[in-house]
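User: New here, any thoughts?
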Amino acid sequence: METFEILTKKRQKKSVKRTILISTVVTILGIGLVLTGFMLLELMAQNNYSRLQDYYFQRVTVAFPNIHLGSHSMRMKNFGGEYKEYLVKDILGVKVPYDELEATYSTSGFNQDHSLEYVRPASLIQDATEMAYSPKKHLKSPLFFNPQAEYGPEDIIRKPAQELSYVSQMKNQLVEVAITFKQRYTFEEIQTMIPKNLKVNWLWIGSETKLNSSKLPLGNLFGWKPRKTYLEQSFNEFQDILNKVYEEREKEKISSEEELLNQDLASFLDEAKEGMSNARFGGVIVTGRAEDFAQLEEMDWIYATSIGISIPNQPYYTLGKE
């Protein structure tokens, strides 16, 4: 028979083994839970990074006049990171650097680059300017002016720009010009109005309200970038995304000014239901050689003209309308 001492030692050994086993299992489970937690947090951050990219893809597709996504970079941190997009403009087929988009994302969501959206008036004295510049690189921004707009005491820019006559003095340059119409026109009508040697880069949806469009954030200045070889497809994509943006805006609590913008969106989308040929636009961004803009001077359908970016026309550029 085993003695009491031997039995006690066996029990102690079993107890130690059991303790070691339990500790090992708890440790493994703990490490597993920590790793799972880290993976879930990283997954949440990556999901918000994807949402951030998708947000700006959609906004640049339906807003941001003649501004395109270029190349991008990302700097990752723990459970988040910084996202930078190098934006470009298209000046008669030449890609010109614009301001950078700088945003952040984390497990809780993403932060937009609000500083990118607001242009800076050339003067802060009311009624003293009809010009504005980009917020970061101080590049001249093309503005649209609603013919029905009502201006308030807080508005800095209160008068429509008339800058077309300056373009003819910009020798050997490629120029971007925003043209506001006195009334809204269809794309087919606009094509007959704009000279063939100028490029239609972007079409503003215009306004049927009294909204002051000159102070709209670039992300709320809605318009279509037509792709000549895929005209119908690009319009359908624009229409689909614009519908989503409008539906999201309708769910938000908005100001009276935002409500005017929603009315303009609703009006445009109602026309667009009947197809591209029925949708009307209130303005256009056109690019081309400075000397080719002389054909537009004195046109009675023009309400305002605002110069944007301009660059020297170099002999090695391959200029094109697509």
